[in-house]
Amino acid sequence: MATATLRIDLSALCNNWRSLNALAQGKAGAVVKADAYGLGLAPVAKALARAGARSFFVAVAEEGVALRRILGKGPQISVFSGHMAGDTGLIRDARLTPMLNSIDQMLRHVEALPGHPFGVQLDTGMNRLGMEEAEWTALREVALDQRPTLIMSHLACADAPDHAMNARQLQVFRQMTDGLKVPRSLAATGGTLLGPDYHFDMVRPGIGLYGGLPYVDARPVVSLDIPVIQIRDVAVGETVGYANAWVARGPSRVATISAGYADGIIRAMGPRAHLHTGSSAVPVIGRISMDMIGVDVTGLAQEPEQLELIGPHQSVDTVAGFADTIGYEILTSLGARHKRIYA
Ligand SMILES: *Cc1c(COP(=O)(O)O)cnc(C)c1O
User: Fold this and answer.
1) I need a surface site. Which of 209, 222, 244, 318 has the fewest CB within 10 A?
2) What is the whole-number distance in angstroms between the Cα of residue 189 and the centre of ligand 1?
3) Which residues are catalytic, by number?
């Protein structure tokens, strides 16, 4: 076995959903955009549906079509990008619920698919998607007449609980929606953890389901073990890898492992990255190549057959830190070449 093994613990995933659902004042949906954050849409969505999730969120209509095939008729599938030009057939046939972002989208939707369910996305300060206050004021009566399934907005700084932006967005969301008889949703994972004021009728966790920060109590879902292809002795002064980036300061044992930046192991993490064998940490040395990485295993009592990049000794977020990025990017970068095992 020369490819790395990515293990995805579906029972930990379901546990994370249940915990967030129990924490929520209303219900918890499940965000499964980007192939369920890189972990595989079909196994992830089926497991979550079995655990009780009834409301799923995707980024674009095409993902919604794939999800409808996987889940069948029952669950609600909402699309964050709304009703874009060219999406009408997909939305109708797969019975997707677009989260409409603008007056243009609202007009497109009610003209093309009168009576078809939709939600409304409001901008409360992030300036990424959604109707602004003036737009919403102009459209509100018309929109409410058509009974939206959900009114939602998204927080820009929810992973920083003390950030003043959170309270500001909450206040704007309340101003725009208080008193309306439509279910509301403001919180993703971070917002759910800010407390019940942020929950409304539906929370929309993504990363928390997959075991990533800011959900510190999440059960880890992913592990990644990379097989060792070869171990060699390297003498003082010899170099390892492209550009001679690492020079042996003493007699060394160097393992070459079978994964690289083509597998989502971001090249920039090289200088800081470690892997584990049991509780021993071993550093990456030299440049990360497309399909291979050099690791200094000098001094290990036993020659490892594989090394753990993500697992019990090192979380997704620790690995993200090696590359100055976030767990989301590590998960969604995981490549197609890993052997995937769903437990
Ligand atoms: C991605 C996304 C989510 C989920 O966010 P997490 O931080 O992964 O929980 C929720 N809502 C919207 C609008 C999103 O784009």
Assistant:
1) 244
2) 7
3) 33, 242
Q: Please give the model's pTM, rounded to 2 decimal places.
A: 0.97
Segments of the chain with pLDDT less than 50: none
Distance set, CA 301 to CA 153, 173, 258, 304, 336 (Å):
54, 59, 21, 9, 33
User: Residues near ligand 1 with C-beta < 6 Å?
Assistant: 31, 33, 80, 154, 188-190, 204-208
Res 1: pLDDT:
65
What homologous superfamily does CATH list for 10-210? Alanine racemase (3.20.20.10)
CATH 3.40.50.970 fits 222-342, yes or no: no
Query: Would you kindly state where each structural domain of the chain is located, as residue ranges?
Result: 10-210, 222-342
Mutate to test the pocket of ligand 1, among 204, 216, 330, 331 (most ligand atoms within 8 A of CB): 204
| The predicted structure's pLDDT at residue 2 | 86
254: DSSP letter? E
